[in-house]
Amino acid sequence: MTRLQGLAPVLDAHTRLLVLGSFPGVASLRAQQYYGHPQNQFWKILGVLWSMPLPTLPYPERLAAALQHGLGVWDVYQACEREGSLDSAIRAGEPNDFGRLRADCPALEAIAHNGGESFKHARRTEALGLPVYKLPSTSPANAGQRFDSKLAAWAEVLRRHGVAPP
Q: Across the chain, what does the average pLDDT equal?
């Protein structure tokens, strides 16, 4: 099985809320983009909350919008072995080092885990002394939950930390 390398974090000193996925899927790794699968609802949810056409914007503009709104994006694993894109197929996951987050992101208020696999690492992120949330996965594999339900859960957390308008 091939060892896969994740993406660099997208965050800065103004990041108030950090969304942690598990590990990029095949389409995201191929594109070198967070949430690069066209069926992933991450950018669609943010676009609705920010009244922006995020899914249609070039990737660098999506990242700039996220940072401008105080949202950072990263994953819990920096590397792993996996065939396909399912979280259940992740093997030998090597977690990212969250130890420098407080220093690199002095405005950081909370961590939001995008889905269950990411949330399995909540104990590690809770050690930062910040609120930690479990959000419904935006992955196409989470097709059982309606978009409106996901949007409501995401809106609540993003609004609580000033990352989306009230």
A: 96
